[in-house]
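If your schedule permits, I should be very grateful for your opinion on a structural question. Thank you for your consideration; the sequence and its tokens are set out here:

===
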Amino acid sequence: MALAPLAAQAQSRNADQELEDLIPDSALDNPDAWARDTDAARTPVPDIATLESPDTLAPMAAMPEITLPWPDAADLPALQPLSPDPDIALAEEEAKQAGQVLDAALPEGEGANSIRTQIANASISKVGGQIELAFPPDLVFPERDAVVARFAALSNLKALDDNDDNLAQLSRRAKEDIDLLQQVLRVHGYYDAQVIQSIAGIERPGEGGAAPTGQRIDANKAVVRFDVVPGPQYKFAKIDLGDIAQASNGAALRAAFKLNPGDPVNGDRIVEERTHLDTALGETGHAFAKVGQPALTIDHEPRTGDLAIPVTSGGTYNFGRVTSALPRYLSGHHLEEIARFEPGDLYQRSLLDDLRQAVLATGLVSSVTVQTRETVAPVAGRPGTVDVDVTMTKAPQRTIAGLVGYSTGEGVRAEASWEHRNLFPPEGMLRVRGVVGTREQLAGLTFRRNNFWGRDQVLTADLYAQTRDTDAYNARTASFIASFERQTTLLFQKPFVWSVGLEAVATSELQASAAKGTPRTTYFIAALPLSAQFDGSDSLLDPRKGFRAGLRLSPELSVQDGTKSNYVKAQVDLSGYLPVAGKVVLAARARLGKIQGTDLANIAPSRRFYAGGGGSVRGYAYQAVGPRDATNTPTGGRSLAEFSLEARVKTGLVGGAVSVVPFVDAGSVGTGASPALSNLRVGAGLGLRYDTNFGPIRVDLGTPLNRQKGDSRIGVYIALGQAF
């Protein structure tokens, strides 16, 4: 059955009457008929050609008359003047008064210390090229230098001394500096200080202080003057330091804070003494002490100040155990060996800081956090106990390193190494190294354990094979050297260090002058080297004062071709440093050595004394000082004497990092057992030092003053650190 589609209806037949009037039902029944029955549909459409004909166009109606007046005939309202720019007005006013005092008037009734004009016969302190501070001539003012120095460091005028300012800018900065100067005076307890500012020294091109039109006043010739009457200095009336009076060592803590009622109020001293008090608490067992920020209340009537610093001292504590967050990497037991305290010692904050730095110095960690933890609380005046927790982040443990160097007489030397710094925890290092050079080749294996049985104690075992070709001998050597030593470090420079060792050496050697085909001599050597040094200098790498003294003893047994020889090799080193005139350090060195117990022929050439080179007598080649054979080849000796004197002169170059160092060295080597000054060789020259954060870089040029045959005229030496 087919269905007819229904017509879509947009409107209901029961719509509102307003819609029915607009669209009747007849429009729904027959839309087309309804549309044709409208007025619009019955209006005829005009012919487009007729519309475009010029004949059909009607003339344009005349425009209405314009009655508005033109602007030139209108009465416009008068323009209101703009508000003057304060800087321009100030500049005009100052230009009128250039060269006169600009009086910053004070309120009336400021008392006997009030000033309204410049101080007569004032005592002047100059600050830069355009600033003066003027004080009463008979004023007793102990803090004057400190006030002037701080004002100079903070002044806007001083900081912009070279700027091309106009007079208005200069005056504005001067008025800002009035507030600064008063703040500086208040730091030193002068809360009633009177300050006026004036500007003088400006040239006046016109009469009566008026500059001709268009002519600029030169503010760079102005001098800004601050006249200052400090007034009375305020004193401390009360000082409240929290609960330190109840601490077991309260009297000592109060003595560490060196401010008392009646002392002058001084902001710098408050900060300084608060730091002293905090340090005293941390160094006397108060592991959890807290020192708050100071509060100063000023009372202007009696001219006093009340100071309150909230302090919570807490109880005192002793150190307990050290625990490690990485026990298999750096154990707590090993950290206790590194620490400069033991369980039961009184807590000291500085020792915690030292432990943190020492752990970082191992090179095995990239960050360290050291914290204290209470394990036993203080009871009845008895100290409690704090354990020390060390949290670490591992650093890379493997290193590949290289070194290339050159020196006159020794040629080129290149060294490369690979190491694992914690292959055998804790701090058990293994290094593989090799050397290739003009006169040296080496392959070696080194084991080292740092902080062994104590802080900065090192156990080392070194096994290597080496070929060395010098002007004196050629040696092919296999060596095993072990040592146990206490070292000095940049972190903890020690006055006394020592070393004990064991050497087992097999070496095949030949004098450099030996004829071709001469058989080599093989030596088997056992030695027990011992050394000790006292260091009373002020720096490990760049000493400026003090002295050092060192002693080396090495009992040795040498066997060659079935012949046994026993002898003792001894060496004494002395050096001293004396500052002169601030920028000059005089440095002197002496070295004496002897081999006692056998003839020179029984001593392997590599074990004899030699002199010459960058660490000995500069100007001469390495090993070039001393006895020589018929072929002019150094033979070495049984005794040694060396002396050096140099002046380390600081310059202003590169921020003072460059020093010039003239030097004189002298030395001799003898075949006898006692050092002698016969055949003394002298070298002199000039060096440069460039200071870095890891020590000075040294470049020395020396020349021999009494050359022998074969000696070069110039020696060049480059190294890290001072020569001695």
